[in-house]
């Protein structure tokens, strides 16, 4: 009886750890436009199977990290990736996407627009429109990725 209770306890603990851990895969990548890094671009991963999108903002060298809510990374799966850049605010390197400060800054700047069916305003987007919506973007990734994520955009 004690063995059965111990086994049941271990199973429940395992399920709780796996379920509560969220299965998030840390995501770091780089965005280039015509071979040059893009600073201040919003990168959004839209899960093709549905669910919450993950978002990040590129730093001065075009490097980004993706956050889903206030958790680093995204769950494993296939994603359509959008990249937009508006004249709005750029998050400081020490500000975590999803944090209250980040959300206030983005609300003031009018972006980023995320979630299912989100679109970026084409009148203020500084990048080619084809990267602005999940329906149009040619960019897609499967997480976990076997190679570094490098999003190479073209102005043509």
Features:
Immunoglobulin-like, alpha+beta, 2 helices, 4-stranded mixed sheet, single chain, 12 strands, 156 residues, 4-stranded antiparallel sheet
Task: Give a short overview.
The protein has helices at residues 2-21, 100-109, and strands at residues 24-25, 28-33, 36-37, 42-47, 54-57, 63-65, 67-68, 71-72, 74-75, 77-84, 140-143, 149-153.
Break the fold down into its secondary structure elements and pairings.
Elements: H1 2-21, E1 24-25, E2 28-33, E3 36-37, E4 42-47, E5 54-57, E6 63-65, E7 67-68, E8 71-72, E9 74-75, E10 77-84, H2 100-109, E11 140-143, E12 149-153
Parallel strand pairs: 2-12
Antiparallel strand pairs: 1-9, 2-3, 2-6, 4-5, 4-10, 7-8, 10-11
């Amino acid at each position: 009886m004690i063995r059965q209770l111990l086994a049941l306890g271990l199973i429940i603990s395992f399920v709780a750890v796996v379920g509560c851990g969220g299965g998030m895969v840390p995501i770091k990548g780089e965005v280039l436009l015509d071979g040059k890094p893009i600073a201040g671009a919003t990168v959004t991963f839209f899960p093709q199977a549905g669910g919450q999108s993950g978002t990040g903002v590129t730093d001065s060298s075009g490097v980004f990290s993706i956050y889903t809510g206030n958790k680093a990374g995204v769950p494993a799966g296939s994603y359509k990736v959008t990249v937009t850049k508006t004249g709005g605010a750029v998050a400081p390197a020490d500000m975590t996407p999803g944090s209250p400060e980040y959300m206030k800054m983005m609300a003031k700047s009018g972006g980023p627009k995320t979630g299912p069916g989100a679109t970026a305003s084409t009148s203020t987007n500084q990048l080619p429109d084809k990267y602005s919506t999940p329906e149009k973007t040619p960019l897609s990734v499967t997480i976990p990725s076997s190679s570094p994520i490098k999003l190479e955009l073209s102005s043509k």
